Amino acid sequence: MLTMEQCIRETPIRMMEIVENHQNLFKEVVKNRYQKIIITGSGSSYHAGVAAKECMLKYMQIPVEVLYPFEIESYIFQNSQTTLLIGISQSGTSLSTYRAMKRAKKHGCHIASMSGRDDNAVVLNEVADYILTVKCGEEGDLQPKTKGMLCTIANLMLLGVYWAKTYGIIDQTAYKKFLQSYKNVSNNLISIVDDAEQWIQKNGKTLVKAKDIRVVGTKDVFGITLEGSLKLVETLRVPVSGYEFEEFTHGIYNAINDSSYLFLLDTNVDSDTVPFFIFFPSITTVQGAEERIYHFPCFFSSNTLATVSA
Fold first, then answer.
1. Along the 310 residues of the chain, how does pLDDT read in single tens digits?
2. How far apart are CA 111 and CA 86, in angstroms?
3. What are phi and psi of 266, to 5 degrees?
4. What is the pTM for the complete model shown?
5. Cystine design at 234: which of 139, 144, 252, 282 (Cβ 3.0–4.6 Å)?
6. Residue in 60, 64, 248 with CA at minimum distance from that of residue 160
């Protein structure tokens, strides 16, 4: 079984394979002119939907909702015949997502599955009208998912952009520009991983002491913020929570104490977020607080995945 680092370093290869095959993968599902997209899944699958949502909204120009499986209730299925529900589970075995997909199909929605596998164990495919396998390769059932998360975001974004091109919402020039941006991001991932490795060598001895972590991201990278929090929980086994910046300002910062560490993922979309901690006396008056706040600039475009610089 591959290690987490090996999976991360394999991600660019998988992402390039996905973009090369996306037209073939989506050729059937784009034949319908949907009026609404619903994405559902749990954990990293939900976070992938959140991360891809803005791009899909921008290009498809139709409503795109991201809901947990328990939120899929009958009252959301208005105009179900023109709604595509995408159920995501990297293992393909999430029963809550499977039940949500069955519920949506009963109400007349088109159903697509996105799983990291395509075998008989993938229950999501049993109810799907369209099987949109995320070709991320094996990660193993027990370890935290990494490449599957980014490859699922890629799958969703490419579906949205290709659908938009199919119906003339964007032209060929905009479509090719997106694909080039996507490839540029993919090709840059390894250098980001290398930078991150150096950053850990520099800061690891301090961070190993962390017992309480907050990850705060600007709205553009909220899905990445949620996923980063989950990865830290899964690997460090300490309390970690993730918030969009404005939500963090609504009381959360009051819980910061002399053992808290803050990671800020910042796209600089809102200048008030840099340096955000100067607005909170309750943070800066905590002894040594500024030494435990780490700022990560994110070079982001809604056209593509976000990339983070350490």
1. 778 889 999 999 999 999 999 999 999 999 999 999 999 999 999 999 999 999 999 999 999 999 999 999 877 888 899 999 999 999 999 999 999 999 999 999 999 999 998 888 899 999 999 999 999 988 865 578 899 999 999 999 999 999 999 999 999 999 999 999 999 999 999 999 999 999 999 998 888 889 999 999 988 899 999 999 999 999 999 999 999 988 888 888 788 888 889 998 888 766 555 455 445 545 554 555 667 888 887 765 445 555 444 4
2. 6
3. -125, 120
4. 0.90
5. 144
6. 60
Amino acid at 70: F
Give buried/exposed letters for 255-275 (b at 16+ CB in 10 A, else e): ebeeebbbbbbbbeeeeebee
Structure tokens at 233: 């929980």
| CB within 8 Å of 107: residues ≥ 6 apart | 74, 77, 80
Query: Could you give phi then psi for residue 19, rounded to 5 degrees?
Result: -70, -35
CB atoms within 10 A of CB 186: 22
